[in-house]
Structure formats: C-alpha cells, structure tokens
Design goal:
single chain, 448 residues, globular
Length: 448
C-alpha cells in the first residue's frame, strides 16, 4: 500500500499541474486578446467586443449547466464505454445549442447598428465551435486528462494570435476581425478535441441525453440563470442604460483580475471531478478540501488585489489605453467581488462534487431578489460602478450561507452519489440517475 502511495500522489499532482496549465493558457489568451483589442480600438469599439464576449459568457454558462457539469458530476466515474457514449451525446448537445444560439445572435446583430451588431454577427457564426471546444475541455477534465485540455487550448491560442497579428498588420481593423479570429481558432481546437476524445458529436442522441440529466440540470441551469445569468444581464443593461464604454470598463477590470480567474477555475475544475470520482471519500476529507481550496484562493486574491489597487495610471494606460479610466472606477468593487468569490470556491466545488445541485439552487433563489434590487438601484444611479458594487455586495452577504450549507450537507448521512446511470441515451426511471440529492431546506472561465 505504501509503495502505491507515491504513484497516486504523482498522478494527482500531475492532474493538478495540467489543470493549472490549461487555465493559464485559457485565461492568459483572453487577457492578451482583450488588451490587444483595447489598444487597437477606441473605448466604444472595445465595448462592442466586450458585449459579444459577454453574450458568449452567458451561453457557455448555460451550456456547462446543461451539458458540461452533468458530464463531470454524473459520468466522471463511469466505465469507458458509457463515458464515451455520454461524451458523444454531450458534444452533440453543445453543437445543437451553439447552432441555435448562433442563429439568434446573427439575427440580433443584423437588427443592431454599429460595431456591436458586427461583433454579434461574427460571434453567431463562431458559437458552434466555441461551445463544442469548451465541452471537449469539460470531457477531458471529467476523465482525468487535463493534459489534453491544455493541448487544445494551446492550439487555439497559437492559431488565434498568428492569424490576428497578420490581419491587424495588414490594416484590417473592423471589430468583427478579432471576434471571428477568436472563434475560428476555437473551431480548429474543437475538431482536434473530438479526435483526441475519439468521440464525434452525436446530434441524434443529444436531446435525449439532455433529458436524461434533467433531474440534475434543472437545478444547475436554474441556479446559473438566477445567479450568474442575472449578473451578466445586469452588465448588459449598462450598455442599454449607459454606454458601450461602461461594459468595456467592467470587462477591462475582469481582464486585470484574469490571474485570479485562472486560479479559481483551476481549483473548481480539479476539485469537482476529483470528489465526484470518489464517492467513498470521507466527509472529513471533503471538509478539509473545502477549507483548503477556499483558504488558498482567498490568500492569493488578497495579495493580488492589494497590488492591483495601487497600479499607477501610467501603467494602466499602457495596458488598456482609453479604457483604463473606466476600469479604474470599478476596480475596487470588482476586487471585493473576487475576494468573496474566492472564499466561496471551496463550498461550491464540494457541493457540486457530491451532486447536491438542489442545495446550490436554493442559495441562488435567495441571491436573486437581492441582486435584482441592487442592480435596479445601482445601474441607473451610478452606471458601471453601480453594477459592480451590486454584484460584490450580493456575493459578500451570501458568503456565510455557503458555509452553512456545505456544513449541513457533509453532516447529513448518504449525501454521496452512488454512481452514473447506465442508460446514457434515454431518460432515467425513478432513482436511476444515481445521485442522492438530499433536500436540505432553506450554485471566471474559462474562456469566460
């Protein structure tokens, strides 16, 4: 047994390392792309790019809720045959969602005037590839192969910047160019991802597969819409009530906080499947994982935000150009938001890993009205800073509730999943899903 321990430790350490590498590639490429766009376009142009990126963020969140996260939670411990069948259906579902949402985005872009319309049309054409690529990443994490996720992200990054540098050097400076280049790189990475997975998207079984996960995805989707979805829509309201530059300011602040998103996404992507693959893990061990993840994230966030808040204007302007002034106005509330989110990472990842989507759903039920009220007050009065403070205050107020819920869950008997369903292509009968979701009364990445 002792002879096996070092090998197991090395395997876990390898998965942690490659998960971090993947998140670094993913987030860093987004940061560099955003800085490049901010320096190449005016504040309104960067706002149009940010609007398209925000729409993508909404859609990738929805797709993860109904496709990627059920794949991680339910099938991480499945046998190879069932897992491959689930991956094919999941990829088909992502392709279907990307195609339908892409058509809607193109229609919205045609209805809009100016640079935002151009960016949305380009995004709509790219959404199928973007969502399939992200689902490939989720499949690699689910099967304990983060190295392959890093490989397709590296391919995406190299292709995107190689093509974009040529186009910008040639003087092609329309706002749709960086969006289309970003999406084309994702399509190439998605194709390679399906080859590495040996699982082509299966459209025929996509809807049935999503229906088979409905007892889990119902909570995941609802909590995303109630939590992150409403926050994203609120930021879009800044563009409607205020200006495109306001959305750009929020996006610019997110760019500056990108390294923290790397750490948070890596922690979440690692912790969820690791817990889901080990239903026999003791509740005490899960508790230590919860505390360890949150403590590590909070420490890193406090140090980084402390440095970020004292960036001199000269450096900020070199990084973000005209967008720096707006970003500076929202940086403090965005740092508060990041610190609260860091502290919540541990309990949220643990609850996801043991399949308690109903618990995270009820926390977001409480979160929603508070966020809406603060958004409705903050945005008309203060614009982008009002939106940032509304989200930050909401996350901070709800932080103690996450710890109460995970403590209750870990003290309740029988909270661990019993295993994945065997009929991956059909809706499950009662009790067939294999997730014992305990009803306890009362839920960045990415390339998003």
């Amino acid at each position: 047994m002792r002879a096996l321990l070092p090998h197991r430790v090395r395997r876990v350490a390898s998965r942690v390392s490659w998960t971090v590498v993947d998140q670094v590639l993913s987030a860093l490429s987004n940061v560099v792309l955003s800085i490049l766009v901010a320096r190449s376009f005016d504040a309104a142009g960067f706002g149009a790019f940010s609007t398209a990126f925000l729409v993508f963020s909404l859609l990738v969140g929805v797709t993860r809720a109904v496709v990627g996260e059920p794949l991680q939670i339910t099938f991480a411990s499945a046998d190879p045959g069932n897992f491959r069948a689930a991956v094919r259906s999941a990829l088909g579902a992502a392709l279907l969602i990307g195609t339908l949402s892409g058509l809607i985005a193109v229609g919205a872009g045609l209805a809009l005037a100016g640079q935002s319309g151009e960016a949305l049309i380009a995004l709509g054409a790219c959404l199928p590839g973007l969502l399939v690529q992200d689902t490939c990443r989720m499949a690699f994490f689910s099967s304990g192969r983060p190295r392959n996720a890093a490989a397709i992200d590296a391919l995406w990054t190299v292709l995107m910047f190689a093509v974009l540098s040529v186009l910008l050097t040639a003087g092609i400076s329309a706002i749709w160019v960086p969006v289309a280049t970003w999406g084309a790189g994702a399509l190439a990475a998605a194709i390679v991802g399906t080859v590495l997975l040996r699982a082509a998207p299966r459209l025929r079984g996509a809807i049935g597969w999503m229906l088979a996960q409905r007892r889990l995805t119902g909570y995941l989707l609802a909590e995303y819409v109630l939590g992150q979805g409403i926050a994203q829509v609120g930021i879009l309201m800044v563009a409607v009530i205020g200006s495109e530059a306001g959305v750009g300011a929020l996006r610019a602040a997110q760019v500056l906080l990108g390294p923290l998103n790397i750490l948070g996404a890596a922690a979440f992507m690692f912790a969820v499947p690791e817990i889901a693959r080990r239903p026999s893990m003791s509740q005490r061990t899960k508790g230590w994982i919860t505390v360890g993840v949150s403590a590590s994230m909070a420490t890193a966030t406090a140090i980084y935000c402390g440095i970020l808040l004292f960036i001199p204007d000269s450096l900020g302007e070199k990084l973000l150009g005209d967008t720096w002034t707006g970003a500076q106005a929202v940086l403090l509330p965005m740092c508060v938001l990041s610190f609260s989110a860091a502290l919540a990472t541990g309990p949220v990842a643990t609850l996801y890993g043991i399949g308690l989507a109903k618990v995270t759903f009820w926390v977001n039920i409480i979160k929603t009205p508070l966020l809406i009220v603060l958004m409705l007050v903050g945005i008309p009065l203060y614009g982008a800073p009002g939106a940032a403070w509304a989200i930050a205050v909401t996350e901070t107020v709800l932080l103690p509730l996450w710890y109460l819920r995970v403590r209750t869950a870990l003290r309740s008997p029988g909270v661990a999943p019993k295993g994945p369903p065997t009929n991956v292509g059909e809706p499950p009968a009662a009790g067939e899903l294999g997730l014992n979701i305990t009803p306890i009364p009362t839920t960045d990445e990415t390339r998003s």
